[in-house]
Design brief:
The chain is α/β, with parallel strands linked by helices. It is 43% helix and 21% strand. The chain has 10 helices and 11 strands. Strands 3, 4, 5, 6, 9, 10 and 11 form a 7-stranded mixed beta sheet that branches. A two-stranded antiparallel sheet has the order 1-2. A two-stranded parallel sheet has the order 7-8. Helix 1 packs across helix 2, helix 1 (6-18) packs across helix 3 (32-46) and helix 2 packs across helix 3 (32-46). The longest helix is centred in the N-terminal third of the chain and has 28 residues, at 62-89. The model has no long low-confidence stretch (mean pLDDT 87).
Length: 307
């Protein structure tokens, strides 16, 4: 394969543009003899004559023009690569892959993407993958995503050297009651008031742990009447009077609450679930990831202030 030397090709292009070896040397801060030597070496590398004498000057051969025609495409591609790399270093290019649990996507990820698009400079692309809380960290550890949004209860510990974990928000939990529940219109409501009610929550995983932990903190162990994980299913059962359930505001904010369901705040207990973002250690300093984290933080702040 013919060896193409970009430095020597730039000298040849400058000679074409400037017309003389002397002008080329001045433009490139070289001596005329160095220019001539470099072009002679390039001709030997390519195996074709590049210059021919014309009086006291030289002109480019047809072979030289052919070489430069292809070299221009290479130079143009390098310019594009340089521009893209500069954009990457400014956090304006590249792609950030996010794994997030279902309610975090519309509540945090989508608003963050909108914030990035509203900025007066280009932002990195964002690719979203919905994943369960524990799976998000598995994907992050495997290098399949760059950022994981999950519940803090499933986050790696601060001692895990692989990850940097950043708290985003404390998501308030409200209780969903059937519209005809005896306490639907009570002036104040505590979790302990519902200790005798049937409860609906997942059979395992983070939501089971969050519900049982909140109830136990209120002094009772909830009776699990039904096991479900999807909010549409849970709220349909609440509407039918089959039980009560804790619902995060990130879920209820998505207008998934049904007409036959009453959402009540638990101001005395104030149960919460904590949402965190995690990246591989050191990645938070990457410009693209840093911009996405900043947008997620702003989206979380906006969501909290809107509660």
């Amino acid at each position: 394969m013919t060896e193409w030397d970009l430095k020597k090709l730039r000298i040849l292009r400058t000679l074409r543009d400037r017309g003389t070896v002397t002008a080329t040397a001045e433009a490139l801060l070289m001596t005329p003899s160095a220019v001539s030597q470099q072009l002679s070496n390039l001709a030997r590398q390519l195996g074709v004559p590049l210059l021919e004498a014309r009086g006291r000057r030289v002109r480019l051969t047809d072979a030289a023009h052919l070489v430069l025609r292809h070299a221009e495409a290479v130079f143009a591609q390098l310019e594009r690569a340089d521009a893209e790399l500069t954009g990457y270093l400014r956090g304006e290019a590249g792609e950030v892959r996010i794994a997030a649990f279902s309610t975090a996507v519309p509540a945090l990820v989508v608003p963050a993407v909108r914030l990035l698009r509203a900025e007066d400079r280009p932002g990195p692309g964002v690719r979203v993958r919905e994943a369960e809380a524990a799976q998000a960290y598995e994907l992050l550890a495997a290098g399949e995503v760059d950022l994981a949004l999950s519940l803090a209860a499933h986050a790696p510990t601060a001692r895990d050297p692989r990850f940097t974990v950043l708290p985003l928000l404390a998501d308030r939990l409200d209780v969903a009651l059937p519209a005809d529940h005896r306490l639907a219109a009570a002036p104040a409501l505590r979790l302990a008031d519902l200790s005798g009610d049937p409860w609906i929550f997942g059979g395992s995983g983070p939501w089971s742990q969050i519900t049982t932990a909140a109830c136990e903190a209120a002094g009772f162990v909830p009776e699990q009447a039904h096991s479900a994980s999807g909010w549409t299913t849970i709220l349909a059962m609440v509407e039918a009077g089959m039980g009560v359930a804790l619902v995060p505001r990130m879920a209820s904010a998505q207008r998934c609450v049904r007409d036959g369901v009453v959402m009540r705040a638990l101001d005395a207990d104030q149960p919460r679930r904590h949402v965190a973002a995690a990246v591989r250690h050191g990645a938070e300093r990457g410009p693209g990831v840093a911009r996405v984290l900043a947008a997620l933080t702003a989206a979380a702040r906006s969501f909290t202030s809107a509660e």
